[in-house]
Design a protein that fits this description.
Elements: E1 12-18, E2 23-29, E3 35-39, E4 44-46, E5 51-53, H1 55-66, E6 70-75, H2 87-94, E7 97-101, H3 104-114, E8 130-132, E9 137-140, E10 143-149, E11 158-162, E12 165-167, H4 189-200, E13 207-209, E14 224-226, H5 227-233, H6 243-254, H7 263-270
Helix pairs in contact: 1-2, 4-6
Bound molecules: fe (ii) ion.
Length: 293
């Protein structure tokens, strides 16, 4: 398999764990320049109070500013259902382009209906600066990255590869965590299995960075593994488990899972590239559609 990037490049990857949502945000730096990218930022919400703050995003901003880095990209691996993106806030402070998979349009169509968004809500991905197709490349300083289309958890998921590091989004969790659910609207367990195989076809020593970790069985939070470790040890797909086994297991498991605590605000914000929806007077507001999800 040939890939469109130089995998001998070793980007510096700094991880920021958000304990409110178990999300890991990354600052990825090109080792040959002062340019960097952010993967999957988090905006803080006190849902009960309807209060938005930016403590987590400010840590990323502080790291980038203190090292005098230029932010080229603010990448979303997908429309997350468990946390809100801080992409526009970070962009307002540091610049950079906000990018997501081009199938965002499918997600916008689906949830545009769920939230009964009016005609003002564009379903063409135009809220984002860049829409990635499978195999699209982009630059972070002198380092090339590429987007790998990995649907299944959602229809718009992408894994991003920069040098010897891949950002897995919600395809895989750490080997003892397995895989992400595939039961959201537009999700598909078979597609997720195929996407995971695509990730596992990357070189064995590729560093894999997770978007989430829940510390199964009381272990400390971790986020970095390798393709080789996932192939041998992943509890859902490792050790030669078949597609049929995976679909059966995943479907049964997903049927028992509750909706993520922040799915309602997350979708409304993340399908708008991290912007809050507004009411008729232009004030930020979130809806709670009843009995539709
Ligand atoms: Fe997700």
């Amino acid at each position: 398999m040939t890939y469109p990037v130089d995998m001998s490049i070793k980007p510096a990857v700094s991880a920021h764990f958000d304990d409110a949502t178990n999300t890991i945000s990354y600052v990825v730096r090109d080792p040959s320049s002062t340019h960097c990218a952010i993967i999957d930022s988090v905006m803080d919400i006190d849902y009960a109070a309807g209060r938005i703050t930016y403590d987590h995003a400010d840590k990323l901003i502080e790291e980038i500013e203190s090292q005098g880095l230029t932010l080229d990209w603010i990448i979303e691996t997908h429309v997350h259902a468990d946390h809100l993106s801080a992409a526009p806030y970070i962009q307002s402070k540091l610049g950079g382009k906000i990018g997501v998979g081009e199938k965002i349009m499918v997600v916008q169509e689906t949830f545009g209906k769920v939230f009964n968004e009016g005609t003002d809500f564009q379903r063409d991905g135009s809220q984002f600066d860049a829409l990635f197709k499978d195999g699209d490349t982009y630059m972070v300083g002198n380092m090339q990255g590429f987007a790998m289309f990995t649907p299944g958890h959602t229809p718009a998921c992408m894994v991003h590869v920069m040098g010897n590091a891949a950002f897995a989004g919600d395809t895989l969790f750490m080997p003892d965590g397995g895989s992400a659910r595939a039961d959201f609207p537009g999700g598909d367990a078979g597609e997720l299995y195929d996407s995971i195989q695509k990730v596992l076809s990357l070189p064995d020593d590729m560093r894999l960075f997770m978007c989430h970790d829940y510390g199964p069985n009381g272990r400390a939070i971790e986020w970095e593994t390798t393709v080789a470790e996932q192939k041998s040890d992943n509890i859902h797909v490792g050790g030669g488990k078949t597609r049929e086994d995976f679909i059966k297991f995943r479907t049964e498991r997903d049927a028992q899972l509750a909706m993520p605590r922040l799915i309602i605000p997350s979708l409304q914000v993340n399908m708008r590239a991290g912007e809050l929806p507004t009411d008729q007077d232009g004030n930020p507001v979130l809806k709670i559609p009843v009995n539709t999800l």
